[in-house]
Design brief:
CATH topology of chain B: Dihydrodipicolinate Reductase, domain 2
Number of helices of chain A: 12
CATH class of the largest domain in chain A: Alpha Beta
Shape of chain B: globular
Number of helices of chain B: 7
Helix content of chain A: 25-40%
Distance between the termini of chain A: 48 Å
Largest sheet of chain A: 10 strands, mixed
Radius of gyration of chain B: 19 Å
Number of strands of chain B: 6
CATH class of chain B: Alpha Beta
Oligomer: heterodimer
CATH topology of the largest domain in chain A: Rossmann fold
Distance between the termini of chain B: 36 Å
CATH superfamily of chain B: Dihydrodipicolinate Reductase, domain 2
Order of helices and strands of chain A: EHEHEHHEEEHEEEHHEEHHEHHH
């Protein structure tokens, strides 16, 4: 069995010590092989907005603390560790680091916080689904000896799920990632063809479905595709019907054949995950927009811009 | 008149009239809370939160000044001149200004006391907003939760249909009545201009003195919080 096809699922508790032990257990279950030499480590977290990890939107600093301790114990204690994130359309990394507890974490664990949007950028282009896509890729990630992907397990309207592959999309240095949204599935696959994390450790302590849910889950694999395949099953989706997973298969970025899970079963988490029906929310949102537009035209009432934007 | 639009929410208007008419007896305790994302609410069209929100020299204060000023004004609207008894400021988001505050107040003229609980720390999705005011009197209680629409979408359809009918029969519509919070801005401006046209004192609105007293209460809350450590 290829190591890349193994995904570990470990149920943990909320204390920092137990989270750290669970990170270790998750990596032991996938027989993570030590790469060497490792002088620089980048941990890519998901800080999409200024919402605390308890909302299910951002990576929990306690999981990152567990990863940092693991790295320090397994490699040289002086290994250069950076926690990295790039600015997003509505989020500025410098504020997210502060508001979400990463500045405290960095101080406590003596690691650097790094905004990928300020990195030396390398222009890359890649073809996906017969579409050429250009990216500005942070140079430090390409040079990193160990790139650890630390995504959050959550739903997202555009792609249904966002976990390992989508978190790498967050490495794109340009803050206006919204420009990729018209071809988001292809853009996710494209950036994953350029940036290949050596390890993915997903934070499912509090996952996000139709509402936040305490799953107390840590997932690990060396293959982000396999993580997303299993994560989509936990969320109640058929992975082969998720757009970017389908394209990733077509582009030979991943292969569902032979994916195995170790540790807890998928059902342990799938049965409690609050599934989201995006069809209903899309229909409702579309109907709202049409009604508001019609109302404005016929009744000639004022519609505040905040409502028109919805 | 100071722009304290919460006074002009339909629910608050009803509560004020009922309290003034003695429906709940003597007002004893007022509880007001509003917990939202404040400036950090994710906009429908994504754009960054302006930098000045993160600069304490430019914003001068946090959730208590931003949202709490409206709630303190509401407290004064119901009980009159007030004194600060206790304040506790929170910094859950590691910002240089408070992202949450709980203050306890008392009326200068009666036995009424109250709690104002305000915060920026809760993920809130527009147009829902987490606000309530409860009046406890010695003869009964009133809650804004009972007077505000429980389903904002059904409320919008109901009020929108009423305006549609008004338009059909050639009557004036009630602008923004299909919303909750936005309607209060319209009511406030309409009241102000009506008073100006008729040369009346806009006593239902917040005067400059009211605004000043509210700011003084906030300053005291900041000082008290320092004392409380």
């Amino acid at each position: 069995m290829k190591m890349g096809n193994v995904v570990s699922l470990v149920q943990t508790r909320s204390s920092e010590d137990e989270i750290k032990q669970s990170v270790e257990k998750a990596l032991d279950l996938i027989d993570f092989e030590r790469r060497s030499p490792v002088r620089s480590v980048a941990i890519k977290v998901n800080l999409c907005y200024y919402w605390d990890a308890a909302t299910g939107h951002t990576t929990d600093p306690r999981v990152v603390a567990g990863i940092i301790e693991y790295v320090r114990e397994r490699y040289d204690a002086d290994t250069d560790i950076k926690v990295v994130e790039a600015d997003a359309t509505a989020m500025r990394t410098k504020y997210a680091f502060k508001m979400l507890g990463y500045e405290k974490l960095a101080k406590k664990m003596n690691v650097e916080l790094f905004n990928l949007s300020n990195d030396e950028l390398k222009e890359e282009k890649v073809e996906v689904n017969n579409r050429e896509i250009k990216y500005k890729v942070p140079g430090s990630l390409l040079k990193s000896d160990l790139l650890i992907n630390a995504p959050k397990l959550k739903i997202m309207p555009y792609t249904h799920l966002t976990c390992a592959l989508k978190n790498i999309f967050g490495c794109i240095a340009s803050p206006r990632k919204i420009v990729y949204h018209p071809f988001l599935d292809e853009a996710i696959v494209g950036i994953n063809k350029i940036l290949r994390p050596h390890l993915t450790i997903a934070d499912g302590l509090i996952a996000l479905g139709s509402h936040p849910i305490r799953l107390d889950l840590i997932m690990a694999s060396v293959d982000p595709f396999s993580v997303d395949w299993v994560a989509s099953q936990i969320m109640g989706y058929n992975p082969s019907r998720i757009g970017f997973i389908r394209i990733a298969m077509k582009e030979k970025l991943g292969d569902p054949e032979g994916i195995v899970t170790r540790g807890e079963s998928i059902d342990t988490f799938r049965t409690v995950f609050p599934k989201q029906n995006f069809l209903y929310s899309k229909l409702r949102s579309g109907a709202q927009k049409r009604l508001l537009k019609m109302y404005k035209k016929i009744v000639k009432d004022v519609v505040p811009s905040a409502l028109e934007e919805i | 008149m100071i722009g304290h639009n919460f006074r002009f929410l339909d629910a608050i208007d009803k509560m004020k009239n009922a309290a003034d008419k003695g429906y709940i007896g003597n007002l004893e305790v007022v509880t007001i809370e509003m917990i939202t994302n404040g400036p950090f609410a994710h906009p429908a069209v994504p754009k960054p939160v302006p930098d000045w929100w993160f600069d304490p020299r430019k914003i001068g204060g946090g959730a208590l000044l931003d949202l709490g000023s409206h709630l303190l004004d509401l407290f004064r609207f119901f009980v009159g001149d007030s004194k600060m008894l206790f304040s506790c400021l929170d910094h859950k988001l590691n910002l240089p200004v408070e992202d949450g505050a709980i203050v306890v107040l008392s009326s200068s003229n009666s036995s009424a006391k109250g709690i104002v609980n305000v915060g920026w720390y809760q993920r809130s999705v527009f147009p829902k907003f987490n606000f309530r005011l409860i009046l406890h009197g010695n003869a009964g209680l009133m809650s804004s939760g009972d007077l505000m629409p429980s389903n904002i979408y059904l409320h919008a359809i109901k009020e929108g249909t009423k305006n549609f009918c008004r338009r059909l029969i050639g009557r004036n519509i009630q602008p923004l009545s299909y919303t909750t919070i936005f309607g209060s801005y319209f009511n406030e401006l309409k009241y102000f201009f009506d008073c100006a046209k008729r040369d009346l004192n806009p006593s239902r609105g917040a005067s400059a003195i009211d605004g000043l007293r509210t700011i003084e209460l906030i300053e005291e809350a900041y000082e008290r919080s320092d004392e409380n450590g």
